[in-house]
Each structure stands twice: as C-alpha cells, then as structure tokens.
Amino acid sequence: MNPWRGLAGLPRGLWVLVAATLVNRTGTMFLPFLVLYLTRARGYTPGEAGATLALFGAGALLAGPFAGRLSDRFRPLRVMQISLTASGTLLLVFPLVRSAFLISALVLLVAFVSEAFRPASLSVVSHLVAPDRRKAAFALQRLAINLGMSVGPAAGGFLAEVSWPSLFVVDGVTSLLAALTLALFFPRDVSISEGSGPARPLPARPASVGAPFLFFLLAVIPVGVVFFQHESSMALYLVRDLGFAASTYGLLHTVNTLLIVAFEVPLNLATSHWPHRRGLVLGSILVGAGFGALAFTRTLTGIILTIVVWSFGEMVLLPGLASYVAEVAPEERRGAWLGLYTMSFNFALFIGPAFGTLLLEHFGGRVLWGTMFAFGLLSALLFARVDERRPGHA
User: Fold this and answer.
1) DSSP characters for 51-64?
2) List of domains in the chain
3) How far is residue 25's CA from residue 153's CA, in Å, rounded to a whole number?
4) Each residue's pLDDT tens digit, 62-106
5) What pLDDT is stored for residue 194 in this prediction?
6) Residue ranges of the chain with pLDDT lower than 70?
7) Inter-axis angle of helices 334-363 and 46-73, to 10 degrees?
8) Which residues, including other chains, have CB under 8 Å from residue 227's CB and lie 6 or more apart?
9) Sign for the pseudo-dihedral over CA of 383, 388, 392, 393
C-alpha cells in the first residue's frame, strides 16, 4: 500500500505554497549558523552570541500575533510575499554590517519580517484543507521545510569554511525567489475566507481566547525550549566541546531533515485519527528524551541515534500543534489564534538559546541535557490535560 496516497486531491494553492517554502528553505543558512558566525567571524563570546540569538526570538515573538491579525484582515498571501521580500533584502545586507548594535538590530528585524510568514502560511493551509486532512497538509508543508533544510544547513557548513558572507547571500536570494514563486503561480481564484473580501478594520484588542487555549500556549513553551537547542547550544556542544567540524554539524541537520522527508507525511497520514492529546504527549516525550540522551554519548553514532529519537518526536508534535490550533480556533479569528500559537513557540526561541548556552557554560553538558529531558516531560504532563473541545468562539 502506498503510504503517500492520502496526498491525492490536495488543492493547487497548497502545492504552490509548498513549492515556495521549499525554495526558501533550501537556502536556510542564517539561523543555524548564526552562533558560529558571531563567535568565529565577529569575535563574540558564547554568552554574547546566545543573547544575540535571543533577539531573533524576541523579533519572532512580536511578529506572530501581529502577522496573524494582519492575515485576518488582508489576504494571507500578501503577508507572505512581503515577509519573504523584506527578509531576503535584509539578509543580503547582513554581511556588510560590522558594529554589534547594527548586528543586533538586523537580527531583530530579520526575525520580525521572516517569522511573519509562519502564521500567514498556517492560516492559508487551514482554510485550503478540510479538518480531517489538516495534519497531512501541515506535514506536507513541513516536508518542504525539511527537504529544503536537508540541503541548506549541509551546504552552509561547507560555505562557512570558505566564506561567511556567502551564507547570507544564498539565504537572501532564495527568500526573494520564494516570493516570486508565490507572485507568479499562486491561484488568484482561491477563496480564503480571511481577507477574501474587502479589508476589515482590526479590532482595538485581540479577541479573548479563554483559559483552555492559554493553558495550551503555556504547555508549548517547555518543549519549545528543548527543541530550539538544536539552533544554539547543540552547535556549541558538538563543535566546541566534542570537537566535531562545522561541516559535520551541518550534516547532522541533514540526518534530521532526511528522516522527516521520509517519514513525516506517512506518519501523520497514519495517525490522523489520533486524538490531539495523544500526539502532543508522545511528541514531547520523544523530543525531551532525544536531547536528554546527549548527556550520555560522545560518539558520532550515538549522536545520530539521539537525533533519530527527537526527530520522530518533532514529526508527531509539530503538525499536531498546528492542527490542534486550526481546529479549536474560531474561523474568523484563525489567523490571530495561529499568531498566538507561533508567539508561544517563538517565546521558547527567545528564552531557549540564552538559557541553554548559560547552562552549558556554567554547568556543562550533562546538566544542560538533563534539564532538557525534564522540560520535555513537563510539556508532556501539561499536554495530557489539554482540553480537546473547542474552547469557544471569540
């Protein structure tokens, strides 16, 4: 039996979005190598680099709810195009900047404009695809992300050993090409209820979401902190502490992304009937266990095995999170609710890198990875109590 058969009949607009995402992510080199770029090319200490990466989380944190509300007012397609064009332009400028202040400002700006893409794209998927196919659709979108990232970070690892500026140039150009893909090929006759008519004025305040959804947003944060260690402390731990080359670190990203390319869509098609709670709990446990196991291995084989564990957790968890929000959100406020979800996840990006590098610097790898295991279990316990009923309309 063909495990991919469930993708048949998905709308053309989704496939165009997937293609644009693939183009964009094929050049993903900025964020995975930012810490190494700052410490090696700009002379930052690990703590300073972690703090600068936290600014990316701050920008992303601000972008989520703002872009989500804009997606409820205008066509989400417009939000995505502006996001890709602006981030591509800023990335081309990045290697020309030398001062710490301007680097920090650019990191904040790149984060804000690039992360505006996320809630808008989630909103498009939610409205294009019926509820019973959303997990598969979100998994397909993540397939594009990870297929691209099976190339981007690996190529970035080799480029970093030759030319740091080339990382930003390639990333910027692919963002601009992704914007062009949406402009040329996204169908104009697609009816997306958000923004399909005249622009509506934004309400004075975001709609109330209620205690059950706020509880869900809180549960996202601990496992998000764990997940984002692969963008920060994991790089320092493997390259600096264990002595692996930067190119090896890039290839380890490829292990993660190739696993996702091979298994995420079939896995989510097979588990589409699962209650949300089951997938969220299992995913959190696997993510925590995968990163926690880094405390007990120093060999390349062992590290690859830990990546396998948290990669399967990621495959279950992340499509499940987006699918849960899309299902419980009121249709007319779906962009705003997805924006709040991305804000919660990006709050983990805001605090996670600095927290992880701080633990690594002061207490070492065993304490760092043991703490990450505990955080994964904490999210699992919280998700076990998530209310699967629609929290109510706002």
Assistant:
1) HHHHHHHHHHHHHH
2) 12-187+210-383 (1.20.1250.20)
3) 9
4) 888 888 888 888 788 899 999 999 999 999 999 999 999 999 999
5) 40
6) 1-6, 189-209, 389-394
7) 180
8) 287, 310, 314, 348, 352
9) positive
